[in-house]
Amidase (Sesamum alatum), 506 residues
Amino acid sequence: MEGLDFTIEEATIEEIQQAFAEGRLTARKLVDFYLHQIETLNPVLRGVIEVNPDAQQLADESDREKERSKMGLGELHGIPVLLKDTIGTNDKLNTTAGSYALLGSKVGRDAGVVERLRKAGAIILGKASLSEWYKFRSLSGVPNGWCARAGQGVNSYVPSGTPCGSSSGSAISVAANMVLVALGTETHSSIICPSDHNSVVGLKPTVGLTSRAGVIPMTPRWDTVGPICRTVSDAVYVLDVIAGLDPRDEATSEGAKFIPEGGYKQFLDENGLKGKRLGIVRHPFVEKVLDTAELAAFELHVDTCRKRGAEVVDNLKIDDIEIILEPNHSGEVSIMMAEFKAAINIYLKELVDSPVRSLADIIAFNESNAELTSIEVITLIELMQSPEKLTEYDPHTFIAAEKTDGLGEHEKAILEKLENLSCNGFEKLMKENGLDALMTPGSRACPVFAIGGYPAITVPAGYASDGMPFGICFGGLKGSEPKLIEISYAFEKATNVRRPPPLGGS
């Protein structure tokens, strides 16, 4: 980036801050650029639900702060951020999980991660679309990336392909240069999968490392908030800001213990693969790769890791992996239903104002407002992939969740089973082989990381024969973010695979 060659498209946080410092860019110009991108691209991509009406004013205030300050203001100062529409903001923006049922509801204060972003000088640009209600209202009756308020989110690389979910809008918007960085949430693959499918970096932190206070809950024991960006370094800059103790989320009292002194930026090491032990589980993660281009790329990337000093331990096995990968079989869905009902009822009752106050109210709203809650906009994705799904939502998941009654003996037995699956599966694999990370193609290993609250990061790794992006995912034990950052950053620098999408790229 030199002189007049600087362009905002595909720029990193570091490059943006350098442009700020040299007077070549202001926060206002940056915000205006992204607002124009959203105005131009969002009618097609539907990655953004709504824009913050105060974004330009906040950018002007940021520029004035820069003029007054004689000291550095931090990496995120003046940086626009999109939030998944489940992350609460006490401003003019709605927080609705993509549903009309929560339109007009008022939160009492910003979510914990939003408070941290604002304190760091970030500009809340708006809310990103998602798979409505984390796709939990119907696990099978609606395409990934669809919500009533925004319609069908579109993959900017392959419009006929899935953007995945549930943090689809966050990944779409970052990929298409409608924003620099975004926040997503993950319970079961919701950061890793859309990031993988949209050729961006998604970082799922250890559960408790980032606060979930003020975030619409899914399953609190597994929910986590993390960054979706175009580079590993950008994701780490965001993680450094949003990670930390929050008295409103008791899980952070344990999670905060994992945060290293000096933060995570120190682990951005181009030689980070050297001396690392990476595990490969071919069955079923590699065996299930059907696209020859993706399979060839994975093998090439494994060889690159070796050449960069990593020791690859191949042909490993995770015990009971078939059970772990089937959420209905493992019992994971049963826990989701029981915890969602309890957690969403608490969340709704604590809102300052809301059209609905319970899961039962949401079900009643959906039944009474079919014109607002069914799939109204037929998109290319739906026509090509899911013609049989162009009907009203199948509401069985919400109704089944409403029939639950907390964590009874049945649910407690499932939780014990899931803990044993994690301890005797992934943890055993990691510890017995002295691994620093599990390396897998795509997002297939997400259930492994979900039920144990483990961290993972996906990095762009190539494009399938039809142009669909795919990534390489690195996952580790709780608190292993420093190692995962070293590994993923060095991998990214060694491979440098990402390219801008046909829709929205430079």
Observations:
- The chain has one domain: 3-493.
- The radius of gyration is 21 Å.
- The chain has a mean pLDDT of 93.
